[in-house]
Design a protein that fits this description.
By secondary structure, this protein is α/β, with parallel strands linked by helices. It folds into 2 domains: about 5-135, Leucine Aminopeptidase, subunit E, domain 1; about 140-460, Aminopeptidase. It has helices at about 25-30, 35-45, 85-90, 105-110, 140-155, 165-180, 185-195, 195-200, 245, 255-270, 315-330, 340-350, 360-375, 405-415, 450-460; strands at about 10, 15-20, 55-60, 65-70, 90-95, 130, 180-185, 210-215, 225-235, 275-285, 295-300, 305, 335-340, 355, 380, 395-400, 425-430, 435, 445.
Length: about 475
Amino acid sequence: MTDYSDLVQPDKGQDARTIHLVDKKGYDDWLKGRSARERATLAAADYKPDGFAHAILPGDDADDWSVVSAVADAGSLSAWCLAKLGQILPEGRYRLADGHPGKALFGWMSGQYRFDTYRSKREARGARVLLTADVAAIAPMVAEMRAVALVRDLVNTPAADMGPAMLEKEAERIAGAHGGTLTVTKGETLEHGYPMIHAVGRAAARHHAPRLIEIVWGKEEHPRVALVGKGIAFDSGGLDIKPAAGMRLMKKDMGGAAHVLALAELVMATGLPVRLHCLVAAAENAISGDAFRPGDVLRSRKGLTVEIGNTDAEGRLVLGDALAKAGEDEPGLIVDFATLTGAARVALGPDLPALYANDDTLAADLLAGGTDRDDPLWRMPLWDGYADLLETDIADLGNAGSSAFAGSITAALFLKRFVPDDTPWAHFDTFAWRPAAKPGRPKGGAALGLRAAWAMLQARYDRRGRS
């Protein structure tokens, strides 16, 4: 496993190769200050300061060289402008010409992430180390990178090795490492206390039995924050079975759980002064003679009855019970993450999590956090005008909308029914996956919305060092 703290280090004047960052606006002026040999090299390579284009600049000696790389704005670096260099440069130490990479530290580390657990031959790669004068930024950036890497690792792991029991084991590791209290509810206690989680997972094999996993951490007197994650370890669709193409990526349906576990560890590891309650509703939506059926009516923890219109709309069921539990402790904030609907991806594609919130200030804070961390979100309308699409003839509500329209909105409205009316709440309908690689963002499991949520939590609750 990569130790990300090895990849960014304080600049103490160590020998290192220089990275020059240029943009189209300033390139010509920068070029005038380079040596004739460097200008000739760039001309021969027909170098243009576009995209992530880079070139090696020769020095006076054979082993003396530096790097030039194009960015959108050399005066305001994004998280990703060094990500490609972190992937492709030879091992060794580097520093920016001005010594201040800022939030590009994150992309440098992210570009060196690898998931090779299942490869019989693993690529041996030396570290690419970035030196920085921004010493205070190192520890926070490393903590965020570890959280993102955890999400990627959990989502990338096949369902056979990442069932409900393994999610519990990961929660146990996190709680044990940081002094949290772990509680796991399963079996008959789950059936009676969290009937929708039990119903969704009861068809799975015994070693993949459903459970509610909870971590409580922090001082009682601190503000209460609840993080809730959908942990469907694999989603066959149940009796409303998915086609093969739709089932191929369903190992990632526990992506919401991966996000909240990583976010919870980030909260604990950095000592954010909150009373944290992390809840993961873990189950496998499998098929057997005991599977829940279309037309069944389930009673929820909150007491609401739910008619099953589609067994493939199971994520909102397990979240409903977990959200109800979260609300019982009267938190000041509830945030949930879930790989909930294909409709969100139709609307926003794979990169943008759909954000729903019942509080405008909370939504604004999350959007601002996404902008600050280059982890964008898009707010969607939690519009009560579609609530009638969840009406059913024989129960309090249905789990599947009666229309093909507004599928992501009706799913969010379903969840809203299980959140206390006076509690600020945000729901992330995230993909947790990248279908194609980008610099610093490999194909596969992805943390989408995690850093935005973390920025919001820091802004709201971390007053340490502030006047």
